Amino acid sequence: MYLLxxxxxxxxxxxxxxxxxxxxxxxxxxFVVEGRKMAEELLRSDYEIINxxxxxxxxxxxxxxxxxxxxxxxxxxxxxxxxxELERISSLKTPDDVLCIVKQKKxxxxxxxNQLVLALDNIxxxxxxxxxxxxxxxxGVKNIICNENTxxxxxxxxxxxxxxAIFHINLFYxxxxxxxxxxxxxxxxxxxLQNGKxxxxxALTNEGIIVxxxxxxxxxxxxxxxxxxxxxxxxxxxxxxxxxLNASVACGVILSEFKRQTI
Amino acid sequence: MYLLxxxxxxxxxxxxxxxxxxxxxxxxxxFVVEGRKMAEELLRSDYEIINxxxxxxxxxxxxxxxxxxxxxxxxxxxxxxxxxELERISSLKTPDDVLCIVKQKKxxxxxxxNQLVLALDNIxxxxxxxxxxxxxxxxGVKNIICNENTxxxxxxxxxxxxxxAIFHINLFYxxxxxxxxxxxxxxxxxxxLQNGKxxxxxALTNEGIIVxxxxxxxxxxxxxxxxxxxxxxxxxxxxxxxxxLNASVACGVILSEFKRQTI
Lengths: 263, 263
Prior knowledge:
homodimer, 11 strands
């Protein structure tokens, strides 16, 4: 098969690399998905793909049913480029054959009944957010609410850490305080330092909102007032050996215990 | 109080920055601890401190009993340096007032009876290793065995991710296969993809070795043969949405379930 190698223009290169910044991602309502694994997961989702830039050796993954059904005329969106060109548009140290430009998903109104929802309060570290999205998907959580200071989910490090789980979860940014204020009849769980109920003994429910706080400062003061089910993960260290767990590890331990109790 | 500001020599700068490489750390049997928080945790441990380089504004933390008892004549080991000098020796983007040169701890023979021990098989990511050390400390694990390909625990990113927990744990590197071969009478747990027992239903013990595998490839083939208690963390995602959990999250979920069952 003869592949037409189109040239990528300088204007395109500039437009693509500008998407490494949140401001430009939001202005254009788009983001970048990089690498074979992420592209494959993307193609199995219903995210709208605008462009694919790929090396000749890359071919559409053979998950064709979903691709043909959701991504119409996807072939026409592929531009084959050289390794040098890929290096110029990639943000990875080692570019991985393919880079896609994708449309962001609009915030969706969600129904919170009969399910567990995560609420993230100032998660700053991209790796933590990505890992939380990945483990939330593992534990069957479908919706994540982020306060406005939580790191952008279309940041490249976040995307890579999700291992593709980003495409299977509904995530949106909002004023978390106002959101919780309008959901005070729900169980609002959060880990607290004092007087939290031990998660191993406390009867946990199969619906409710679980607040995960900032990596260094925990749950912020105003959000803390909204917690009506304070919980805690028991610590087995000697005094003063350790103060806290990593935010994503704590989130994994908590979700695991919720699922264990309510299967 | 008048503080004598000594100069730091170029030879010292070269020697200190060379410790960013594992080879030089092992040759000199030393490593670098950076920042206020880490220095404070270090001073509460019995690690032997060789030198402290600090800005004038840094003072010994007021945990004096432990300091006087363990770290004799610690004052004499402090060299006050300028911000510019600290920048030259630091590996942090934003140097944090203090940098210590510390002696590595010799491998210690450990007694594995009556306790849970972690065995790490090719953990490559420094952040993961640090997070595992931190959560192991939280859950009361005192000993971590690493195979020889696991990332060096005195790597700066590992140290920072431990949040100081590194100073409270006994960790050593060895041939993991041979180690497990000489401990086949113990429970050797490991997460496997097929035929693992659901951790929520399986009766877990309060002693044994828990193997944590590589971030991408899981437990390696030869080590897998040594697992006599295969386990698995139930997945609640829809088919094909997600393949695995992050190694440190999986480790946290597993240790939490062990502790819950055996308190």
